[in-house]
Structures are given as structure tokens and as C-alpha cells.
Amino acid sequence: MFITKAPVEKVIELKNHIFILKIFAPEIASIIKPGEFLNVKVCDSNFPLLRRPFSVCDVEGDFIFLMFNIFGEGTKILANKHKGDLIDLLGPLGKGFNIEGDYDTAILVAGGLGVAPFPYFIRKIGNSKKIHSFIGGKTDKDIITYRMKNITISTDDGSLGIKGNVVELLEQNIEKLKSERIKIFACGPNAMLRKLRELCIRHNLNCEASIECAMACGFGICQGCPIESVNYPDKYLLVCKNGPVFNIRDVVI
Amino acid sequence: MFITKAPVEKVIELKNHIFILKIFAPEIASIIKPGEFLNVKVCDSNFPLLRRPFSVCDVEGDFIFLMFNIFGEGTKILANKHKGDLIDLLGPLGKGFNIEGDYDTAILVAGGLGVAPFPYFIRKIGNSKKIHSFIGGKTDKDIITYRMKNITISTDDGSLGIKGNVVELLEQNIEKLKSERIKIFACGPNAMLRKLRELCIRHNLNCEASIECAMACGFGICQGCPIESVNYPDKYLLVCKNGPVFNIRDVVI
Amino acid sequence: MKKADLSVQVGKLKFRNPVLLASGTVGYGNEMSEFIDLNSIGGIVTKSLSLKPRKGNPPQRIVETPAGMLNAIGLQNVGVEEFIKEKIPFLKKFNVPLICNIAASTYEEYVECTKILTREDAITAFEINVSCPNVKEGGLQFGNDVKAVGKITAGVKAVTNKPIIIKLSPNVSYISHFAKVVKEEGGDAVSAINTLVGTAFNIITRKPKIHNVNGGLSGPAIKPIALAKVLEIKQSVDIPIIGIGGIMNWQDVIEFMIAGSSAIQLGTVNFIDPYAAVTIIKGLEDFCMKQGIEKISELTGSYII
Amino acid sequence: MKKADLSVQVGKLKFRNPVLLASGTVGYGNEMSEFIDLNSIGGIVTKSLSLKPRKGNPPQRIVETPAGMLNAIGLQNVGVEEFIKEKIPFLKKFNVPLICNIAASTYEEYVECTKILTREDAITAFEINVSCPNVKEGGLQFGNDVKAVGKITAGVKAVTNKPIIIKLSPNVSYISHFAKVVKEEGGDAVSAINTLVGTAFNIITRKPKIHNVNGGLSGPAIKPIALAKVLEIKQSVDIPIIGIGGIMNWQDVIEFMIAGSSAIQLGTVNFIDPYAAVTIIKGLEDFCMKQGIEKISELTGSYII
Ligand SMILES: Cc1cc2nc3c(=O)[nH]c(=O)nc-3n(C[C@H](O)[C@H](O)[C@H](O)COP(=O)(O)OP(=O)(O)OC[C@H]3O[C@@H](n4cnc5c(N)ncnc54)[C@H](O)[C@@H]3O)c2cc1C
Ligand SMILES: Cc1cc2nc3c(=O)[nH]c(=O)nc-3n(C[C@H](O)[C@H](O)[C@H](O)COP(=O)(O)OP(=O)(O)OC[C@H]3O[C@@H](n4cnc5c(N)ncnc54)[C@H](O)[C@@H]3O)c2cc1C
Ligand SMILES: Cc1cc2nc3c(=O)[nH]c(=O)nc-3n(C[C@H](O)[C@H](O)[C@H](O)COP(=O)(O)O)c2cc1C
Ligand SMILES: Cc1cc2nc3c(=O)[nH]c(=O)nc-3n(C[C@H](O)[C@H](O)[C@H](O)COP(=O)(O)O)c2cc1C
Ligand code: FES
Ligand code: FES
Fold it and tell me: How far is CA B55 from CA B32, B134, B143, in A?
């Protein structure tokens, strides 16, 4: 956990409004794990004031990749970076995915930008497990398949893949999938994760989910990122420290 | 007086920390006069919040030129513009220099960045009058001669030209200059203009000076830019509307 | 699709849309009229007037701060007489509600100003500035004193039939106490907020950056505070509120209306973008259409807490 | 050149430099110690403690605003017992003055907390938070009530020999009235300011962005207000002041000292740059050298007005 000012190597526009930043950051590249995140100061000035959290999307040698869409002021500034611009990164932060374990197939469930942490996840898991990716979005414009493997797609409007949301898509396939030992890894909007959680409880599935919420510090000093814990109802967990990846049953989303 | 978003054509670094912005702004180029200024929003965000006033430095066809040094946050942002970036300009503003008149030689007196309005002044005056430029600065690093004519230089530390301030320099030459019909045009820090004002009163010289002060709006609605008037002591003049160019004797600097 | 109805009612006052221009940030309308059609905006509030002309504070009067600015203009103004002779004739040419803002050093001056100005047909309503933090003789005292605000409200009400809006200071423990006394004394509406007291120092000279020492903080920096003040009033007093403070775009206007404002005023943004009022009105129109809001006034106090 | 003396005195308290870390923005020191050497800073003020653990407010607790942020953590904390058992042993390892911040819902709770904690040698002083705007039962009431603040000051003074700093609310008409009562009741210093009450709404759902509705505004946006409050206290009450509010860099520290602060606290900036304290201390050192300031404490209240 430290701050580094790292030079941008490349800004790649994947789709309209969806970008990848390739950054030269060897110290981070060498230690960060899938599902961990960085808290990024998008500019030197006080505007915007706070850092923005981003999952590490991929690591290649000394380079790290961040994937984001233009959402507000901060991501707009990031999208306008040029090669050589220095980006102020604080990290690695949080608790990432637990890749090891007693399962044969990793089921990746991503809603929209929720694919962000999975390229690195896939790289790290290598050939040790099978992978099946379920990717959902509102329309085909929201579907990102960058470096994903073995993909099944759903869109709310049916413009690509099956019509419906990604949790419904998963449910349609779940009996088939359950013939193997599976573990689910998920990332996406809270509404999706809430439905996924119900599904996992219903079908008694093992699932780790990366959860988003507003953050100020990202490293545990502001208490700004509480999440209700199932096991300790008298205190909140912190998304930035105890997460962002949780066993989906342990938290109230 | 209107707002236009005009594309940067070129960012030129004249010296360390001193820049020229060349901007494609035909509507402004066609009407602005020497000594008038623009109030510039350096970025879309709220930081910095206020516009920054800059004199028009020169006009060439459809292009206008602004000269500035990196002073604070706003000028730092301006210096980092790229070709094609749009700059938000409000203007033309203020009352410029009165070039016409009963004199043969225009004496330009500039302190540091105070040369900014004079290239355009020189262009407009053409061959109708003679020009003599006196340029002063702290050290040779502060001396800018961009597009100036017939130059005499002073520096506080003597590193270039005569050692001393530019008003002393002018005073050394004043008897000789007074053999012709002269009019002084000045721009620079208030401390310099204050000394120049005394000189002009002592020698009964005709002098117009462009005066700087903090501004919010630049067009007369905030009342943020008062200057004491000699003739109407019971009210302030506004630098942005009644100036920035004043007869140096009419105002208390 | 049908156009949304942007008109709003603030007590007895009716505006064609909720976007007014705030006192001290539009002069007397001349300069603004070179940018925008004044007839398209909700209303205009003129620079604070006092009985006699005021020279105002010496420079430096303004300083930029993070997402805000401090000002200590010191109520420079032309005085009631010149206002009537020189400024009203210009403003009369427009068909826009004219709210005349009055600031004074004594109770008697408030009443006297109102009495003289009420004869002017061009004036639609008065906004009484009891809260200017930059005038040493009295401004701040009034704004921080519930009894004084009540007395001034009653005093000006007694000499005019035109609606009275009291502009409240945010530099108090409970702004709602002030709104309450305004209502009790017959005030028609409150506007909230005026600027917050702030200062800044030059670290080399150790002098205040502003000649007056303190200035009034305005701009986006104060928006969250202004919204909380509007909400506080809305939750405790039944009086129309004109929301002010850091509004930069149409989204901010919606936020202020949800928090309880019937109309709003644009201040600092006019310095940065004199077209802001027009852009914002267009934005409100589009938002209402998109959201199926037929009358924008439905938004006032529509918070879900 | 001789190094400048950065040490400062706040009443009986001595700090190696004026840069303390503010309550609620350093947790209990663990995380910060991974970034900086806690022994290099002036002091550390722990997250507000109450007698019993507090769960705090449900999310969303924070929202960004222009050059600022709103928070409504709701005083989530581990309670006095766990603090003594779990947190003090860690903090004891450092040679840095430990100021324990206490927040409570009743007068009795303030006294009780202080009484228990005063036995802990590791605690150098207490900062009493009478001004947290995010706790519904009482926080705001105390902070806005001069008598209550006086009573709490006297109450905690009576049960401890350690210095008592009262942390004042800016959400009042005259903060100096509160500083005055603190002095009268024997308080050793005041810290100013806590956050300003603010809010924000989601314009689509019309719900407050923060679950608690109101939050506390902090960050650079509030700096001019904080400076004016420090100056107000300095000009009217003879009590040491710890300045807080929007400090981002060493220049801001100098400004707060000129306005009257004997020491300062860094809050929001820690979230953005946990190294800020160290960078700032270095900046202060360089500034003093350059300006020929031998003792930084000379700056306190050195304004020229
Ligand atoms: C652990 C974590 C990992 C993330 N990884 C990615 C990623 O890989 N790619 C990506 O595109 N986005 C990711 N996000 C979301 C990303 O942080 C936001 O998209 C980003 O903050 C938007 O910034 P902005 O300035 O463009 O938007 P603005 O709306 O202008 O500002 C965002 C502000 O909203 C706040 N906020 C409120 N709710 C949320 C929320 N649910 N999540 C985040 N911020 C919120 C933030 O604190 C911030 O202050 C992640 C978030 C978290 C918490
Ligand atoms: C009519 C006029 C013409 C000008 N022409 C030029 C020019 O051609 N080239 C040039 O380099 N500079 C010029 N200046 C000065 C220029 O506006 C400032 O250098 C610029 O505002 C610095 O901005 P910043 O963000 O870099 O500095 P910052 O210090 O971060 O911000 C400047 C802030 O300080 C305020 N301020 C305080 N005192 C003054 C003052 N005396 N002058 C200006 N702003 C002040 C401004 O209002 C602004 O908010 C001119 C000023 C005026 C009034
Ligand atoms: C330069 C300036 C001058 C002002 N003058 C007055 C005034 O004369 N009378 C008044 O009631 N308010 C005055 N105000 C306050 C504004 O009307 C408004 O209440 C305040 O600026 C907050 O709104 P804003 O954040 O949108 O600017 C002034 C504000 C500024 C910035
Ligand atoms: C997230 C957060 C939590 C805070 N918690 C506390 C607290 O528990 N007790 C307290 O006295 N002040 C608390 N504060 C207030 C700060 O200590 C400080 O007074 C305030 O943030 C202003 O300083 P700043 O602008 O530098 O942040 C908190 C502030 C923030 C931003
Ligand atoms: S974001 Fe600050 S504690 Fe989690
Ligand atoms: S800068 Fe606004 S009136 Fe001159």
C-alpha cells in the first residue's frame, strides 16, 4: 500500500465511452492480485477532490491496465490522458478474489463494466481451472468482452445474445453447470448482485462478489464505505478493507 | 462582447514559463483593439472557478495571440493546452489604448509581462508613428522582446541592458525624447506604474496605462475591480469597464 | 410532446420560470442584456440599494477560493435617487419582474427606502438584504438578530403593498428561526442564502487578501450548505423559499427545488457564464419533458426522506 | 543555515510541530502508520469515542461536493472498552502525543468517558467533540448551546488533570461566544472547526444522497470559513486555538497560523494523500528557513490588519 506516480503508456478506446488505460507501474504490477483495486487521483488539482477506485483489469509485465467508462468528471479526465502523463495511484488496496480452492470451473458473472477485474483473473488462473463467462448489459453497446474467455451474453433488450439479465441467463444454465464443481466470481451493479445472491442461496452455490460503493480513502480510515454483515449484525464491515470481494452470503447488498 | 469557444492552433514557449497561445477566433480577431482584453475560462470544470483576464497580444488574420507566464493554477492549465483544444473566451472587453492623436513617437513602457498588449499595438500603429520601447524586468529571464520594436532594456540586477528599473531608464532618456511630441503607453506591475505616474506628473507627460487587478466578471456586473478616480473621489471607477487603459493621471494606482 | 409548464408562484409573485438573477451579480441589468434576452428569465434582483449612494470598499474586493470566491464589495451602489432616475427607465423596457433589493444601516433607512421606491410601478417586489456580511455599521448585526429581522420585516411591510422577500443570512445557528419571524411579521417569502463569512490571508505580507478582512463566500463550494439551509426552513416553516447558493447548472436548480425552493437565484455563475440563465432554463425544460413533469412547481419540496 | 524550530505550545501541551491529524480522518493510527512515521508528526487525534460501541449510520455515508465532501459516518466507533484493550497498545508504540476525542449523547456520558480514559497514561489530552452534526440524539444540540458547552467543559475538567480541548461547531452565529465559555470553565484550548451542515439530493429519486439526510462538509471548500472562525476567536478570546478546515498544503497551514492558530489538524486531505502531513512539515521547515522565521510559533496570530 503506497502511492506512485506512474506514466500512461496508452489510452485505448474499446467502445464508445469505454476505455483502457495502460500504465507503466512495475511496483504495483509485481504485487497486485485479481480483484484488488487502486484509488486513483485523476488530476493534481482539488477538482475532483477525491480519488476514484478502479479494479486492476489486467497486468502484463511492468504494465497495469485499468478499464473504465466515462461516468462523470473523473473518468472524463482519465479518458483525456496522453502518453507520458503521470497518474497518481494509491494501492494495491482491498481483498481480492480467492482463486485457489476445491472447484473445477470458475463461473464469471459480469454486469456491464463488471468485466473489469476478470482479464487479470483469467490470466492468473491460467489453465488450472476451466472458465465460463456470463456477461450481461442493457444493450449490445454495453457488452465488453475484452480478454474474456468462453463467453455467453445476455442483454436486457435482446440486441445481443439472450434477452434478459445476466442472472436469469445464469439460472437457465445452472443445472447443467452444477454437474461440475463450480465457484462463481461476480462483479457488477448492486441490483445484479442482489439477484445473484438470492440465486446462490437458493442453489447453495459458492460465490465471491466484488462490491462497489462510494469511497473516500479506500484504505480504512474514513469509515465511509460500510456494508452490512450477516454474521456480525452489530457492526458494519468496510468495503475497502474487508472487501471489495466478499463471500456473497456474508453481506447484505 | 460575447462568448466563443475557439480552437488552439499552437502553443509556443517563448522562454522558460512564458507562453504564447495562438487561437483561431475570427469573430474576435476582426473587432478587438489593442489594449482590450479577453476573460478566459481555462477549463470546463469549476476549478479554477473564475475566468482569467488576458490582454490581446497580437492579431494575425483570423488568429489571436495571448501571451502569459505560468503564474498559478489557471495559467498552468493554459500552458498545457494542445492543438485543437477549445478555449472559452469572453470578450472583447474593456477600453483599449487610444492610438490616434497629436504625437509623433509612441513610447512603450513595459514591465515584465507588461509587453503583452504591445505587439498588436505596434501592428495597428503601422508606420503612422515612430515607436520606442522601454522594457524592464528583474533579470534577463524576465525580458520579453517578442515582436517589439526599437528596444531599450533595463534589469534590476543588470544582467541585461541597463541596471535599474524601467522607469529610471525612461527618466534617463526623457529629456532627449521630449524633443519630439511623444505619448507614453505603459503596462506592467502596479509598483512600476505608480513610479511612472509620478514621472509623468513631474514632466507633464501624456500617458495611458493598462492596469491589472483582480477581476471576477470582467464586464461590469460584479463591482470587484474598483480603482480610485482623481476626478470623482466619491466613487470608484471599474478597471474592467472604464479601463483597463486609463490616462495615468486620472487614477490613483 | 407538450412543453412543460415552467411557471412558478412565490407567494403572490408569479414568475414565468424559476430562474432569477441574484442581487449584486447582475448590476442593474444593462450588461446582462447584451448577452441574454432579459424577457426570457424569471426575474431580476437588482444590486442592493441604500438611501444614499455608497462608494463601497477599497480594493481588493474579491479573491478566488477553492470552488468559490470571497467578495467584499461593501454595497457600492448608486443610491435610491439615481436608481429611480437612471436605472429604472432602462429596466422598464423589459417585461421581466423587477425585484428591488434594499440594504441599509438602520431600521429607519430600510423603511424610508421602501417607502420611496414603492411608488415606482416598475418594481414588482422588494428583497430586503438583512444579511450582508461586508458592511461594518450594521449588516451582520441585523442578519444575526431574530428580533431585528422581525422588526424590519414589519416595518417595510407597513409602507408597501408590494411583496416583501427577506434575504436571510446563513451565518446563524438556526436559519429557520429567522424564517419563522419573517412569516409571523407578514413577510411574503424568504430567500436563502446570502454569502457565508470567510477570509483569506497573504502568507508573505500577513495581511488579509481582502481589504475589508472578511468577505462573503459564494459559488459551488457553498451549495451543500445552502441546500441544507433551504431544507431546514422547508421542514419547519410554511413560507415560500427562493433558493440561492452555488447554482451552476440545471441539475443544481432541480436539487434546490426538491429541497424546498419555489424559485432560485443565480449569483456567481453569471460572472463566469452570463448565458447561464438561458442555458439552465432550456435544461429545466428538457428535464421536465423527459421525466414527464408537467408543472415544474411540483418539484418544490418533493424530497423523499 | 540553522533549522527552524517547528515546535509549538498549545496551552500546557507541547508538540514537536504544529501538524496534527484530525479526528475521524486517521482511524486509530494503524493504517496511517503504513504510510508515514507517526513519530514525525505533531500529534494524532483519534476517531470520536463514545462509552459504548456505535454501529454508525447506514450507507451511503459520503458524497463528494465541489472542492469538498459530505460525511455522515454517525460516529461509528469501537467504544471506550475496546479502545483501551485493542487500540491503545498499538498507539503506545509511538512517541507521538495522543489526543483522545470523545463524543457523547449526554453530559453524563462525556464525563464518564473522560473519567475512564484519564487513567490511560498513553493519552496526552482530550478533545471533546461537542459538535458532530451527524448524530441525531444530541450532537448538534450541544454544539449550538453555549450553556451546554460550558457545562460539559466544566464537567470533564473536574474528572481529569489532562488538558481539555473543546472542538467547536461552526454552525453557530458567533463561535467566539463558545470559545469564551470554554475559557471561563477552564478549558485549555479550542479546536475549530468541525464540519458545516450540508446536504445533497439525487434529482431522479429525490432522496438525499446521504442516508442521514444531512452530512458534515469538509475539505478545501470550507477553508475560507474556517479561517474566518479562527480569526473571530483570536480577536475576542485569549485561548489557544487549533485550526482545522480544508488544509491541503503548507501554505494553508501558514494561513491558519497567521489567523490565530497555535497548531492545526489535517482532515480530508489524509484520504487523498496519506503522506500529506510529512510533505507539509517539510514545506513548513523550508518556508521558515527562507523567510528567516526562527520559531514557527511566532506566526500565531501575526496577522496585520
Ligand atoms: C472497489 C471498486 C472498484 C471499481 N472498479 C472500477 C473499474 O474497474 N472500472 C470502472 O469503470 N469503475 C470502477 N469502479 C467505479 C468507479 O470508481 C466509478 O465509476 C468512478 O468513481 C466514477 O468517477 P467519476 O468522477 O467519473 O464519476 P462521478 O459521478 O463524477 O464521481 C464519482 C463519485 O461518486 C462516488 N460514488 C457514489 N457511488 C459510487 C459507487 N457505487 N461506486 C463508485 N463511486 C461511487 C464516488 O465516491 C465519487 O466521489 C469501482 C469502484 C469500486 C468501489
Ligand atoms: C486586464 C488584464 C489583462 C491582463 N493581461 C495579461 C496578459 O496578457 N498576460 C498575462 O500573463 N497576464 C495578464 N493579466 C494577469 C492575469 O490575469 C493573471 O496572471 C492570471 O489571472 C493568473 O491566473 P492563474 O490562475 O495562473 O494564477 P492564480 O494566482 O492561481 O489566480 C489568479 C487569481 O488571482 C486574482 N488576482 C489577484 N490579483 C490579480 C491581479 N493583479 N491581476 C490578475 N489577477 C489577479 C485573479 O482574479 C484570479 O482569480 C492580465 C490581467 C488583467 C486584469
Ligand atoms: C460580487 C457579489 C456581490 C454581491 N452583492 C450582493 C448585494 O448587493 N446584495 C445581496 O443581497 N446579495 C449580494 N450578493 C450575494 C448573492 O446575491 C448570493 O446570495 C450569493 O452570492 C450566493 O449565491 P451564489 O453562490 O450563486 O453566488 C453578492 C454576491 C457576490 C458574489
Ligand atoms: C469522514 C470524516 C469523519 C470525521 N469524524 C470525526 C469525528 O469522529 N470526530 C470529530 O471530532 N470530527 C470528525 N470529523 C471532522 C474532522 O476532524 C475535521 O474537523 C473536519 O473534517 C474539517 O477538516 P478538513 O476540512 O481538513 O477535513 C470527520 C471528518 C470527516 C471528513
Ligand atoms: S473508503 Fe475509507 S474506510 Fe473505506
Ligand atoms: S471585474 Fe466585475 S465589475 Fe469589473
Answer: 10, 19, 18
From the list D136, D3, A218, the residue with the least C-alpha distance to C305 is D136
Residue A79 CA to its chain's centroid (Å)? 19
- Centroid of chain to Cα B131: 16
Read off the pTM: 0.97
Q: Give, using CA atoms, the residue closest to atom 52 of ligand 2.
A: B212
| Secondary structure letter of residue C219 according to DSSP | S
pLDDT at B16 over 90: no
pLDDT attached to residue D1? 62
Q: Is D131 helix (H, G, I), strand (E, B) or coil?
A: coil
**Is the CA virtual torsion B79, B82, B87, B93 positive or negative?**
positive
**Cis omega (within 30 of 0) for bond into B48:** yes
- Weakly modelled stretches of chain D, pLDDT under 70: 1, 132-141
Residue A98 maps to a domain: no
Answer with the one of A39, A68, A93 that is the final residue of a domain.
A93
Ligand 1 binding pocket includes A47 (Cβ within 6 Å) = no
H/E segment holding residue A28 = helix A26-29
Distances (CA, A) of D33 to A237, D26, D78, D82, D96: 21, 9, 19, 20, 12
What sign has the CA pseudo-torsion B109, B111, B114, B120?
Answer: positive
CA–centroid distance, D266 to ligand 5, in Å, is: 17
Start-to-end C-alpha separation, chain C: 31
- Cell numbers found for residue C57: 470598499
Same domain, B8 and B111: no
Say yes or no: A167 and A83 in one domain: no
A115 plus A62 within the same structural domain? no
Distance between A45 CA and the closest CA of chain B, angstroms: 8
What is the tally of helices (H) and strands (E) in chain A?
A: 6, 17
In a domain, B99, yes or no: no
Is pLDDT at A213 greater than 70 in this prediction? yes
Residue D257 CB less than 6 A away from ligand 4: no
What pLDDT, on the 0 to 100 scale, is given for residue C134? 54
Cα–ligand 4 centroid distance for D72 (angstroms): 10
Nearest-angstrom CA–CA distance, D31 and A220: 7
Helices (H), chain D: 30-33, 79-82, 88-92, 107-117, 139-143, 146-158, 175-184, 223-236, 250-259, 269-272, 276-291
pLDDT at C144: 85
| CATH assignment of the domain containing A210 | 3.40.50.80
String of DSSP letters for A158-216 = SSSSEES-HHHHHHHHHHHHTTS-EEEEEES-HHHHHHHHHHHHHHT--EEEE-----S
Q: Which of D252, D198, D200 is nearest to D226 (CA)?
A: D252
Query: What total number of domains does chain B contain?
Result: 2
Residues A111 and A183 in one domain: yes
d(CA B75, CA B166): 25
The CATH code of the domain that includes B42 is 2.40.30.10
Domain that holds residue B37: 2-93
Q: For each of the domains in chain C, give its residue range(s) and CATH number, in order of start.
A: 8-58+73-197+218-299 (3.20.20.70)
Percentage of chain A lying above the pLDDT 90 cut = 95
Q: Quick: pLDDT tens for C216-272.
A: 999 999 999 999 999 999 999 999 999 999 999 999 999 999 999 999 999 999 999
pLDDT at A247 over 50: yes
Distance between C219 CA and the closest CA of chain A, angstroms: 14
Same-domain check for residues B81 and B121: no
CA angle C180, C182, C185 (to 5 degrees): 110
Cα C132 to middle of ligand 3, angstroms: 9
Annotated catalytic residue C100: no
Which of A40, A69, A93 is the endpoint of a domain?
A93
Q: Is the pLDDT of residue C140 over 80?
A: no
Q: D259 and D22 in contact (C-beta within 8 Å)?
A: no
Give ligand 5 pocket residues (Cβ under 6 A): A 215-218, 220-225, 238, 240
